[in-house]
Amino acid sequence: MKRPVDHGAMAVSGYTVPWHIAAGAPVALHVSSSRPVRDVRIVRLDTPTAEFMDWRVEPTGNAASHRDFDHGSFPRIAATELAKTTKISGVAFEVYLTRNDGARVLFECGNLRLGLQDGRLTSSHDGKPQEIGEILPANTWLTVEISSDGNATILKIGSDDLLSPYRLHRQFDRPWSPLGDMVFGASAANDIKTLNAKFSAIALQTATGHIAWSFPTLLPSGPIASAGGDSVLLLETVNQPAFCMTSRRWDGSSFDPRLVPSHYDAVHCHDDDMGALQWPASYHVHVPDEAPAGVYAFEVGHDEGAERIVFFITSSVRRAPLLFLVPTATYLAYADEFLPAHLYEWMCEDRGHRFAIDNNLKSLYDYHSDLSGVSIASYKKPKATLRDDYNYPLCGCPHNLPVDLHFLRFCHNNGIAFDLITDRDLHERGVAGLQDYQAVITGSHPEYMSVEMEHALRQFAATGGAIAYLGGNGFAGKVAFQDDLMELRRSPLEAGRTWDGPIAEQSLSITNQPGGHLRASGRGEFSLTGVAISLMGFDGARPFTRTPDSHHPSAAWLFKGVANETFGDEGIVLGGAAGYEVDATDPHLGTSPDTMVIARATDFPDSFVHDATRWYEGGVDERASRRCAEMTLRHLPSGGLIFCASSVAWCGALPTGDAMNDVGRITKNLLTHLAAAKSRTNPDRQQQSGGQPAARSGSTA
């Protein structure tokens, strides 16, 4: 259902294609605006002060205007496809209704419409209503059959639920004329809310036989071809429903769609689904070949202000020994988070969240209107909360991008050179994308990773590279990518923090691998870094205090110039260095015994909640003693090392401008040490990679 963009909270919103590029490539801006655009400029955001670039931004001829959103997904067979076959005498499909209020459409084609009004079945022939009035049961699989003999139309709906069997049989004295598009779960005009439902086993009966479609378990990149009959017909799924969903055939014998694909041949359609937007590009710029890697934005000015729409320029050649890994997966997962006011206390206002609410946008932390979780998102949409001036309402302070910008500005202020790669680049290139760098540096919250990303980081560290993990709750959730899409299926490990998907539907439709946490697949946080989330809270952050191990020569270099045993009592994220989400070790869950805890933060407020997945053998007393964040250092046999700040707030505790504090000294000591390390020339690594992307099979390095 189309609706104009509500610009009440933001006069301008949009997205770039692509989202990240190398220097020398073009990038286009797709924008909606309720105000006349005054000017469009490119601004670099990661420098100490924003720098406007003299790059020529050119209009495309499609002037910025007030655009539409199209909400709701559904299957459709176009009239041009139906015309390829002989006379259609019937259609059948399976449907699993979820939560649907108001007026909806179950099926429409030609002169026949089957609808729902607050769950009660309605029908119309040639625009004339036919009373049915029965309530269709929800949360059970129904088989719908429609047939016509030229004089009448027969409708059969049934369920084989043993406890609640359902049967409906109606005959209408008007014939069905299957002309035009055949639409399931939406009106042909797409002018009312689409149906919240699963669909499966769509089939046509024609004069020459049976034509059927099976929804694949793997997300298709285009329309789905039919089987049977005298010709191949294409069925399209409009606006990105969720694939790899349990169907009527699922019997609980397996949770793996690769073993029982027929059990997962359904799609779940929602009235608030939104795939990649198709707004025309209004402006484009060709990034100069000499442009430095960094974080940039199109700044769109109008008579009441301006908005910045972010994109990233990545490094194509090595210019520095350190490589910053931009966590775009985390940025996309959080983008446009709904944060309903009746569930969450807002500590500050943010126009991006208001824009998301006004326009019914959803992040991968949100629920659909039928209370199933949002599991797939495109970067080709406004990401209204991805801004350099963003403040997170749950903590009233910067989060994600602005905190990472705070770190990058610290690097510029202190002469720390870095190259830049996005995590999506790393997913595509594997360990070859890290070739010849001394260290990879993360931002404040690298929470989401694909198997390929995590494996590349393992290979890098195993062959002498260093990982400077400057955040908290990182390397946790598993994601998958296809074109502009990212998919995330949540697991019981996340219970209490966000939506929890059914165990049977946690496999990713992009790969069919199990979703959930990387940890559940024997990789991820503990086995890679040695730490994982221990506490989460939105009250005051805490300082760190050095441990005796921090004075050992193998760690003492980190604290050169740090006079105080306790440090980090200020910052832009909750006022300290250890806050929001913090990590700690756990040998039982995989922390290596050679991991050194070099600082610890304690005395967190009671509002900080424990990670629900941890079990403490010592009971209440041990649990109380583990209310902490633990900064760690691990020297690897390969010669590399892994440093963990273990706090989302760490980068926010860095100083600004020419100022310096202990958090800054530790961070500068770390990065200077890593940059000055001997060049990594491990012959085994050179032989393994050969300068080409290594095979990314998902196995542990």
Compute the CA-based radius of gyration: 27 Å
Low-confidence parts: 681-701
What's the CATH C level of the largest domain? Alpha Beta
Q: In percent, how helical is the residue content?
A: 10-25%
Q: In whole angstroms, how far apart are the ends?
A: 48 Å
User: Can you summarize the main beta sheet?
Assistant: 9 strands, mixed
Portion of residues in beta strands equals 25-35%
How many strands? 43
Helices, by number, come to: 11
Mean pLDDT: 93
The CATH architecture designation of the largest domain is 3-Layer(aba) Sandwich
Shape: globular
Strand order of the largest sheet: 30-28-31-33-43-42-40-37-38
Protein name: N,N-dimethylformamidase beta subunit-like C-terminal domain-containing protein
Organism: Rhizobium loti
Region (Disordered): 678-701
Biased composition (Polar residues): 684-701
3D architecture notes:
12% of the residues lie in helices and 32% in strands. It is mainly β and 701 residues long. The strands form 8 sheets. It has a 9-stranded mixed β-sheet with strand order 30-28-31-33-43-42-40-37-38, sandwiched between helices. An 8-stranded antiparallel β-sheet has the order 14-13-12-11-18-9-22-21. Strands 10, 15, 16, 17, 19, 20, 23 and 24 form an 8-stranded antiparallel β-sheet that branches. A hairpin with a 5-residue loop joins strand 42 (629-635) and strand 43. The longest helix is centred in the last third of the chain and has 14 residues, at 662-675. It is globular and about 90 Å long. The model is unreliable at 681-701 (pLDDT under 50). This is N,N-dimethylformamidase beta subunit-like C-terminal domain-containing protein. InterPro entries: DMFA2_C. Residues 678-701 are annotated as: Disordered. It holds the Pfam family DMFA2_C.
